[in-house]
């Protein structure tokens, strides 16, 4: 019952979510989010990035590809469940076949044999399902260590926990689960090493990550074809301000 | 002999002139379609890089200036500057607008040209045909960057027709738009400091305070 009312309260909080463009998002907690982001950057700089780049240096790329495939497959039931929740039944069927194929012929998911057979990987989760049915993103949130999210995606993350299959098997101990999650973290971070340079070249890294996160999530909700976002500003022939004007304080 | 030479010179000149008018009238008639523009620009860049890769690795300045001269005709930089400055465009002076436009373009070249140099032979761009009406003035050209190790990356070019040629005004990598992203960053920074400081930051090429140390690929 306690769990149910908790879920109900979270769902209620979603009803207040409206759509805002990513260049002008709802970020009322910016004053809290920014220090958390700075902390995350430090943690990344001193722990996660060194570990991930060490991993990328030591482990050959073919093996890393296998690890990435394994985790993509392990968490694929999340995609299948959310295919169904979004009434994408054909895609759900194909994704189920993909999961079965990669788990068996693909040796537990290490090899991605299904993509070559016409079953490409999809990306669905509960946050996207909410978005698909019209729920807006709500506030932008920066979580310690876990990174960027929104009200909607945060609630979705909780819900998606039920589709994580490791918890339903007794053959994997809690310690092993922890080790797997650690490896998964290193794996996902190592996939992003190439983006470090781009992050470094930004004017405001916090805003860069925020906009990129919101744009990417919007792209996922619309499966790669989001409607054109109104830039709210078109050709402007306004005269420039007089050159003599003092620079704004 | 003399007469022969002068006659052939005259013929040659006439032929050249005819060719010149032909080329001119041709370009006035047919506008290169947007997907063709993207294809042309990327293959020009790629072939130049593969011919001179060693030289460019030694001389980054020459590389950046090559990229600059090659791509500037394909980008609508004044419009990009305007879209990014948004509300700040209205209050900016003519000088600030121009300085921002140039500084922003140079910053982009510095940021992305290195990746071009690094991946020029391991990444192939597949440009899809643009779907658009014949009288359209805006179009989106979709493409995929095909990599050897990893799934393709979708890249979209938003283009518009300006002075009879299609020019890029936004690039979206997995729907992460360059324009919206920099617009929000510039807005935040102008609010925190001033437009002059933002321009100076861009011009200095040192946008961020905390340096990121070299990363493995």
From TrEMBL, chain A:
GO biological-process terms attached to the record: intermembrane phospholipid transfer
Acidic residues compositional bias, start-end: 226-239
One Pfam family named in its UniProt record: MlaA
The entry's keywords: Lipoprotein, Signal
Name assigned to this protein: Phospholipid-binding lipoprotein MlaA
Origin species: Hydrocarboniphaga daqingensis
Signal peptide (residue range): 1-18
GO cellular component assignments: membrane
Biased composition (Low complexity): 240-249
Transmembrane intervals: none
Region entry Disordered, spans: 225-249
Family membership noted in the UniProt record: Belongs to the MlaA family.
Keyword Magnesium: no
Listed InterPro entries: MlaA
UniProtKB/TrEMBL annotation, chain B:
Signal peptide start-end: 1-30
Keywords: Signal
Name of a matching Pfam family: MlaC
Record flagged with keyword Cell membrane: no
InterPro entries recorded: MlaC/ttg2D, Tgt2/MlaC_sf
Name of the protein in its database record: Phospholipid transport system substrate-binding protein
Species annotation: Hydrocarboniphaga daqingensis
């Amino acid at each position: 019952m306690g769990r149910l009312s908790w879920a109900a309260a979270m769902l209620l909080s979603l009803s207040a979510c409206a759509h805002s463009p990513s260049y002008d998002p709802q970020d009322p907690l910016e004053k809290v989010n920014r220090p958390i982001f700075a902390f995350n950057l430090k943690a990344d700089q001193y722990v996660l990035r060194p570990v991930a780049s060490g991993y990328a240096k030591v482990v050959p790329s073919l093996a890393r590809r296998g690890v990435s495939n394994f985790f993509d497959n392990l968490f694929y039931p999340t995609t299948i469940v959310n295919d169904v929740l979004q009434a994408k039944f054909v895609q759900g069927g194909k994704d189920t076949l993909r999961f079965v194929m990669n788990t068996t012929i693909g040796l537990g998911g290490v090899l991605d044999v299904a993509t070559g057979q016409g079953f490409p990987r999809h990306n669905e989760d509960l946050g996207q399902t909410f978005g698909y049915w019209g729920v807006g993103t709500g506030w932008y949130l920066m979580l310690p260590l876990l990174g960027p999210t929104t009200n909607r995606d945060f609630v979705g993350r909780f819900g998606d926990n039920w589709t994580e299959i490791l918890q339903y098997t007794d053959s994997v101990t809690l310690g092993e689960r922890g080790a797997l999650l650690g490896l998964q973290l290193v794996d996902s971070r190592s996939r992003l090493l190439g983006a470090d340079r781009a992050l470094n070249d930004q004017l405001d890294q916090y805003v860069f990550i925020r906009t990129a996160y919101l744009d990417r999530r919007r792209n996922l909700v619309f499966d790669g074809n989001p409607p054109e976002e109104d830039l709210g500003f078109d050709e402007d022939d306004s005269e420039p301000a007089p050159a003599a004007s003092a620079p704004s304080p | 002999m003399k007469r022969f030479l002068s006659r052939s010179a005259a013929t040659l000149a006439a032929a050249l002139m005819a060719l010149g008018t032909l080329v001119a009238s041709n370009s006035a008639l047919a506008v290169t379609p947007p997907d063709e523009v993207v294809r042309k620009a990327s293959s020009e860049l790629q072939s130049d890089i593969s011919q001179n890769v060693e030289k460019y690795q030694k001389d980054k300045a020459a590389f950046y200036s090559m990229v600059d001269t090659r791509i500037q005709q394909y980008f609508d930089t004044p419009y990009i500057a305007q879209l990014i400055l948004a509300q700040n465009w209205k209050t900016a002076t003519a000088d600030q607008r121009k300085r921002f436009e140039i500084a922003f373009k140079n910053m982009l070249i510095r940021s992305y040209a290195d990746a071009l140099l690094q991946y020029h032979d391991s990444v192939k761009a597949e440009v899809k045909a643009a779907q658009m009406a014949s009288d359209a003035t805006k179009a989106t050209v979709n493409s995929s960057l095909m990599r050897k190790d990893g799934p393709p990356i979708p890249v979209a070019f938003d283009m518009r027709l300006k002075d009879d040629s299609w020019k890029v005004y936004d690039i979206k990598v997995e729907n992460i738009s360059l324009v919206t992203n920099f617009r929000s960053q510039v807005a935040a920074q102008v609010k925190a400091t001033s437009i002059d400081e933002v321009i100076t930051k861009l011009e200095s090429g040192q946008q961020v305070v905390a340096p990121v140390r070299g990363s493995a690929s």
